Amino acid sequence: MPILEIEDLSVSYGAVHALSDVSFTAVEGQVTAVLGANGAGKTTLLRTISGLVHPRKGTIRYDGHQLEKMSVEKIVRQGIAHVPEGRSVIEEMTVDENLRLGSLWRFGRRERGAVIDEVYDLFPPLAERRRQHANTLSGGERQMLAIGRALVARPSVLLLDEPSLGLAPIVTARLMAVLRDLTSSSNLIVVLVEQNARSSLSIAQRAVVINLGRVVVCEDAAKVAGDTELRHHYLGY
Amino acid sequence: MQFFLNITLGGIATGMIVSAVALGLVLIFRATNVVNFAQGAMAMITTYVAYDVLRKGANYWLAFVVALAAGLVFGALTQVVLIRPVQGKSPLNAVIVTFGFLIFLEGVAGSIYGSTARNYPAPFSLSGQKIAGTQIAFSPFDVFVVVAVLVLMILMMVLFRGTDLGLRMRAVAFAPEAARLLGVRVRPLLTLGWGLAVAAGAMSALLVVPTSSLTPNFMDIILIYGFTAAVVGGLDSPVGALVGGLVTGLSLAYVGGYIGGSLEPMAALALVVVSLMIRPEGIFARPAARRV
Fold first, then answer.
1. Beta strand pairing status for A80-83 and A157-161?
2. Where are the beta strands (DSSP E) in B5-51?
3. Minimal Cα–Cα distance from A148 to chain B, Å?
4. pTM score over 0.80
5. Are residues B184 and A100, on separate chains, in Cβ contact within 8 Å?
6. What percent of chain A is modeled with pLDDT above 70?
7. pLDDT (tens digit, 9 = 90+) per residue, A101-124?
8. Within a 10 A sphere around the Cβ of A135, how many other Cβ atoms?
9. What is the pLDDT of residue A149?
10. Nearest by Cα to B255 from B276, B234, B228
11. Is B266 in a helix, a strand, or coil?
12. Can you tell me the ipTM of this complex?
């Protein structure tokens, strides 16, 4: 069973240690929530997995491959999709063009229509706006588009950075429900970075709590959610 | 009335050439987000290459193709050697590099070919036609100019709107990091963008040179008009480049015809100022993103 395995990962920006000896594994069909305060190193962790940042030491293994020395483009081709913070849709393109772009490296012209339609089935509001430019979408729709654009290439690992940021609670809840259903019905590995610990713990099976670049807890999500002291101390609720 | 008609036709012909220059600028801006001040000078170099090919006895069309191919290679090399090191840094870096390259290229051309004006042949007649007994200032070469620029425009629209390659190129231009995360190989696309733009520039220079003459700085004034057109039409819109070019060409023709030719550059400046005041993003640019 392929797992995403991170071992002793350390990342520095000059003299600043963003991550120190981070180790954890993320398993198929599960959501692994990565939690922690602002500046804990959560975004750096995802950027390192997808190759945008190079680690000082440590390994990232997935399905028999060492990812830490690969280029971003090659890591994408191992089936690892990263949805960065801030709903990074391309505003100058239409919804349809954004999705098509996501499918290009993976699918030929013939198959593309079908995989894009699957995303429209998953997120119906996007289907109504397929010819509109992405800058006309609401925050929730943009997040749907960003996630849909990652899913269109049928990834095996989905890295999500703060998908609930700036969204209304009801939109967040809907998004989390889609993610939960998607993970449980497939072999997808989801690594979900969130400041909104409550909503991400509600769909996660595993939780990794990071503080100042170090893993403080790596546990079942239910246990973390039930540990009042830990929640008060690191997750702020 | 006939004077007005002739000025208008001349303005359209000039406008189409200006459009072609603007199109090259737009192509580079869309593909790599860099404003290329050396666009005219690079096209001047490819025109000298075509001139040498012609002098060796080749026919016009062979020289035409050689100039375009030279533009493609020259643009790609320039991107790799000069632009790549400043890509992603402050936009001012790229401005200084391309501006310096303009001065360098004109110096090199001057030291090789001297500043003597040379004649470059046209593939069709340059003199106006008599239609229904009236002399019309629109030559067969002007028709060729209009057709060539329209073909270039259509090819660009098809590339950017209708092909996967164009979709990738736009993605790289607008959001390089997001494009990489979607598996787009960024580097070769930036190189290709420059190659195509300089090839378009090479074509525009070939359309200018028969009615001007070949010197190291023959593209300078046209480049300024090209910038005017790109600003009027919107730096990221190919249709804007065409319309901006026509607006610029016609404005210059009316100012030149009714007031005086020496005021033409001033008219271009006035056009830039007015269009920046009324619609700073250009007529055809989409309005800036609205945060929701």
1. parallel
2. none
3. 12
4. yes
5. no
6. 99
7. 999 999 998 999 999 999 999 999
8. 18
9. 95
10. B228
11. helix
12. 0.91
Distance CA(A176)–CA(B243), nearest Å, equals: 48
Residue A78 confidence (pLDDT) = 95
For chain A, say whether B180 makes contact (Cβ under 8 Å): yes
- For residue A82, list chain B residues with Cβ-Cβ distance below 8 A: 181
DSSP B248: H
Question: pLDDT value at position A190?
Answer: 95
Per-residue H/E/C for A129-140: CCCCEHHHCCHH
Give the model's confidence band at A165: pLDDT under 50 very low, under 70 low, under 90 confident, else very high.
Answer: confident
B170: which chain A residues are within 8 Å (Cβ-Cβ)? Answer: 90, 92-93
Give the pLDDT confidence score for residue B290 in this predicted structure. 39
Beta A80-83 vs B129-131: how paired, if at all?
A: unpaired
Tokens 């973390």 identify what position?
A224
Closest in A82, A138, A150 to B292, CB measured: A138
CB half-sphere exposure, A36, CA atoms < 13 A: 24
Closest A-chain CA to B289:
A135
Greatest Cα pair distance, chain A, in angstroms, is 54
Over residues A121-155, the pLDDT tens digits come to 999 999 999 999 999 999 999 999 999 999 999 99
The tens digit of pLDDT for each residue in A41-56 reads 999 999 999 999 999 9
The H or E element that residue A128 is part of is helix A124-128
If you measure CA to CA, which chain A residue comes closest to B285? Answer: A92
B181: nearest CB among A50, A93, A139: A50
Establish how many alpha carbons lie within 13 A of residue B125's alpha carbon, considering only the half-sphere containing its beta carbon: 8
User: Does position B291 have pLDDT exceeding 70, yes or no?
Assistant: no
Answer whether B181 sits within 8 Å of A76, measured CB to CB.
Answer: yes
How would you class B128 by CB atoms within 10 Å of its CB: exposed for 0-12, middle for 13-18, buried for 19 or more?
middle
B185 CB near a chain A CB, below 8 Å? yes
| Residue B263 C-alpha, separation from nearest chain A C-alpha, in angstroms | 38
Q: Which residues of A touch B164 (CB under 8 A)?
A: 100, 104, 109
Contact A104 B181 (CB under 8 A): no
Q: What whole-number distance in Å separates Cα of residue B61 and Cα of residue B44?
A: 18
DSSP B86: G
Please indicate whether, in this complex, the C-beta atoms of A76 and B292 are within 8 angstroms of each other. Answer: no
For residue A190, the surrounding DSSP H or E stretch is strand A189-194
B168 near A CB under 8 A: yes
Nearest-by-Cβ selection for B182 from A76, A133, A138: A76
Domains and CATH numbers, chain B: 2-120+136-278 (1.10.3470)
Asked if A161 and A193 touch (Cβ cutoff 8 Å), the reply is: yes
